[in-house]
Design a protein that fits this description.
With 190 residues, this protein is mostly helical. The protein contains 4 helices and no strands. Helix content is 94%, strand content 0%. It comes from Brevibacillus gelatini.
């Protein structure tokens, strides 16, 4: 392996070390904000380190065909050390600002959706419900009025109908009794 490939490998691994430091800080900021259960934090810790290991190995394969030597570890440690020394605090501060901006943006978008979509739809729904309730009560009132007028107009006929019904019932009762008596007397004769 020539010196240029070795320098490219050390530079790539130094970059990987710095990126792993950034990933580590990002992971810890989100882990603190999320308040996950301990078993889930353990699972995500393992997932983070295994993912980092695969990413570093993939970059190593791309840079120098996956050959592992001492300068690779030196480059990773140097890149991580340089990141934690110079950029970690600034990056964490930047990350907190990005998170606050995203939270503000989320709340603002929700307020806009509430103001432009949800409230008008609820207002239209309430107006329609109010109109339908008013129309329903008017319909009930009109039907009630018509029922009272119909009862008033048909009241004399209703009394006459009741009287007629009683007369007819009395006559049919007599017919039915006569019919039963005739049928029983016919059976007795046989």
């Amino acid at each position: 392996m020539n010196i240029i490939t070795q320098l490219q490998t050390v530079l790539a691994m130094s970059t990987c070390g710095a990126l792993m430091g950034m990933g580590f800080d990002t992971y810890h900021v989100f882990k603190r904000k999320s308040r996950l259960p301990v078993w889930l934090v353990f699972f995500f810790d393992i997932l983070f380190w295994v993912g980092s290991m695969f990413a570093v190995f993939w970059i190593l394969v791309k840079v120098n065909d996956g050959i592992i030597r001492f300068p690779i570890f030196f480059g990773m440690i140097f890149g991580a050390w340089l990141y934690f020394l110079l950029g970690s605090k600034k990056y964490i501060l930047f990350l907190h600002r990005v998170i606050k901006f995203c939270q503000w943006l989320y709340r603002t978008v929700l307020q806009i959706i509430d103001t432009l979509v949800v409230r008008p739809v609820l207002f239209i729904y309430r107006v329609i419900l109010m109109v339908l309730t008013f129309l329903y009560s008017m319909l009930l009132m009109i039907l009630g009025f018509l029922w009272k007028v119909t009862r008033f107009v048909t009241a004399p006929f209703a009394r006459w109908g009741q009287h007629l019904g009683k007369k007819m019932y009395g006559k049919t009762t007599g017919i039915w009794t006569n019919w039963k008596n005739w049928f029983h007397s016919k059976r007795k004769r046989e």
